[in-house]
């Protein structure tokens, strides 16, 4: 029986993917990489900040030291953080708030499991913090998805065994991470049909039968 649901953040509870994309594109252009596009950005879903930077840099020819890479990632994060200032509860994805409310009513625990180090700030801005029992994010982990660490930390914070948890994810790396951690999976988002989740839905408002999943 599912006793806790762990939600990925970007692409599941809120759509920050466009803001990530704009910030990476700005950085890429400044580095003379003009052909960084949405297809490249798709590969950055659920992937850590430094791994996302590599996806940008592989489009260029210049080599950077680790120190330079850290500075570039920080620059992108500054652009991204500026754009987060416009984020509001209106940016919560369809059905997300209702799903959290329904789970609380049923006595199912809820957590976020996100690669983002900006997760706490984002959750404050979109006002979902009161509906979540625990947060596990980029600040808690050293290994990124598909390593299961972020979800195992979430389960541990909830005080639950992995097999009693369901993970809701929109990325291939995230579904794989949940599987690696021994959790059940609900795939959502535009790629939901291709991610191999135990269950799938276009978004959280189109989940047909929560009873079957829980
Ligand atoms: P940050 P998620 C992920 O969030 C994003 O999908 C991914 O594009 C981003 O690189 C990663 O967070 C790290 O974010 O730079 O804010 O620490 O899908 O795991 O909620
Ligand atoms: Mg995601």
From TrEMBL:
Its cofactor is Mg(2+). It comes from the Bacteria. Its EC number is 5.4.2.6. Mg(2+) binds at residues 8, 10, 169-170. SUPFAM superfamilies: HAD-like. It is an enzyme of class 5 (isomerase). InterPro entries: B-phosphoglucomutase_hydrolase, Beta-PGM, HAD-like_sf, HAD-like_SPP, HAD-SF_hydro_IA, HAD_sf, PGP-like_dom2. The active site is at 8 (nucleophile), 10 (proton donor/acceptor). CDD domains: HAD_BPGM. The record marks 114, 145 as: Important for catalytic activity and assists the phosphoryl transfer reaction to Asp8 by balancing charge and orienting the reacting groups. Substrate binds at residues 8-10, 24, 52, 76, 114-118, 145. Keywords: Isomerase, Magnesium, Metal-binding. Binds 2 magnesium ions per subunit. GO terms for biological process: carbohydrate metabolic process. GO terms for molecular function: beta-phosphoglucomutase activity; magnesium ion binding; sugar-phosphatase activity. NCBIfam families: bPGM, HAD-SF-IA-v3, PGMB-YQAB-SF. PANTHER family: FRUCTOSE-1-PHOSPHATE PHOSPHATASE, GLYCEROL-1-PHOSPHATE PHOSPHOHYDROLASE 1-RELATED. Belongs to the HAD-like hydrolase superfamily. CbbY/CbbZ/Gph/YieH family. This is Beta-phosphoglucomutase. It comes from Marvinbryantia formatexigens DSM 14469. The gene is pgmB.
